[in-house]
## 1
Amino acid sequence: MGKSIIDEKLSAKVELSSEELARYSRHLLMPEVSIDGQRRLKAARVLCIGTGGLGSPAALYLAAAGVGTIGLVDFDEVELSNLQRQVLHGTRDLGRSKLESARDRLRDANPNLAIELHEVRFSSENASDLVARYDIVVDGSDNFPTRYLSNDVIAAYFQIRQRLEQSRIVPRPECLVYCRA
């Protein structure tokens, strides 16, 4: 397996419970994942920008795969027109905060998951602070201003990380992967 963006010392300290070993048993059989890979997944911190049509399935699959911490950024409420494409939300969630709805669905999919809610619009005032808390960022936003902002913030943060790495000072997160949906 190639170099991981998740710190090996951190992931080596991660323990999997007997329930988690049973839950992820199919992953553990795969040589591409194995127990070491599952520990890395559990040690990972992923930020999902948006819990709508793009962020919903991403967050759900990350939770099911065993990512340890998922941060969610959204400020909207669930509407009837959301339900045909936003798989985290259901009819009973109409009028609720998308973050509360997403948290409940993700906890149902994986009760071992840590979920951090950020009920804000991803903006120039908070973007750098939010990105700095996570190893990986998935942009599931549905508008160009947010996509451009996330791209700019992540690119700037990654450049800072590269300069610091050259001087052997590496902050957390070790690396960011920007997944444009």
## 2
Amino acid sequence: MIASSDSDGRHLTMDELRRAGVANANGAHPAMDEVRRAGATTIRRLSHLQALESEAIHVMREVAAELERPVLLFSGGKDSIVLLRLAEKAFRPARFPFPLMHVDTGHNFPEVIEYRDRRVAEIGERLIVASVQESIDTKRVVEETGPRASRNRLQTTTLLDAIEEHGFDAAFGGARRDEERARAKERIMSFRDDFGTWDPRGQRPELWNLYNGRIARGEHVRVFPLSNWTELDVWQYIAEEQLEVPNIYFAHEREVFRRDGMLYATSEHVELMDGEEAFSASVRYRTVGDMSCTGAVESSAADLETVVDEIAATRITERGETRADDRVSEAAMEDRKVAGYF
């Protein structure tokens, strides 16, 4: 080992190292030059996706080490599918040091719920289902009515109740900064007070991949290992890992209707307005959520390769193109997050 400090611990300058014969005129260590010439050093450079994967796994292990009762939010959507794969890489062959949880509105796409249950059974982990319908039945929330009614906002109360009931002090989520401007403001480890609310002006610094998970009783953190990923990164990772996703992410024929420039699936949960008519179209979903506020896009992308190509060419974010809940106001997402939303 080549020393670069003196007996007092002072770091030597490069000139001092050269005079001592430790470094050559170019500042390189001769011993290292000899090793390189002998071909004995191999510098492994991570690809873009490998670097993102490494960061996310580091975050998940840090949270598992720092916090006592984490939970991973798993809806069966593409981002939570990637989170599940990262958790496998972080902790297998052991069991996950946390359960999975889904906040179920009762108005989810049946294909996604079927995939969720099957995937959880395959990996043999525990799934907690927090039900919005139960929150309605117990008068914790009041269901909206009318053609534009949605259970999306009601999820916040159900989520916070579940976190309190199970004593969770950290919740992994699949949110990414490229999705929406409020999410772009948020840290990887995002602090929530004892009411579950978020203060965008009072976030903790995150320097050199150091995360402060210190919280008081009743408080918790939301953790977003995919913060630095983009939608394209997610799809390229799914393709590289050959991960199964619900079939509604691929082009298929579906009965839809047009509202506010978006295509919504017809269902028992959505009431058509005057002048709206259902028709059949080839569509796919970029994001999956409550059927009442999640739109489809017209598409012929029927496999992973063509989906990746389609996402690489688009210039509209997935939430901007397909989520009605983000169009309620200019600050719709931030308002929900401040109140405790995902």
## 3
Amino acid sequence: MSFKMAFVAAAVAAPFVLAAPAFAVDKPVDFVTKAGEAGLFEIQTSKLALQRSQNPEIREFAKHMIHDHEKAATELKHVAMKDHIRVPSMLDHDLKGKYNDLAKKGDDFDKKYVHLQVDAHNDAVNLFTDYSQNGEDARLKDFAGQTLPTLQMHQNDIKAIHDKMHLVP
């Protein structure tokens, strides 16, 4: 294949490759890993928010995150155990870096926390929507579908806090 033909083929294929969502997972182990890490990240960053934030709305949101995501983590472990899949107990390198970056924030902690939670909930809603519709494991699909409304509520709540703080995306 000539360079020109390869370039044209790559240019034609690029929109389709780039449009494939990064959160799309069909395999049970991939879903459990991503969902487990996402929940853990939201719990850990929310515990940090309870220590650092003075904003009552952020503190209340953080309390809900800890409660709801610990509950979801317990349910995920129960469902995943039936398939002999281990739920992560540590953050991956990327999420650990985001956590460490948040932990270093001073005066702009609230702003960074809110941005991270908006992004995390957008990703989680996409992940759980995708798996509830396309996942391979019926029990995990049910878990994703049952958990999705809570994630969507969190997504709406954090977007409202974001908008109230007049933050730019």
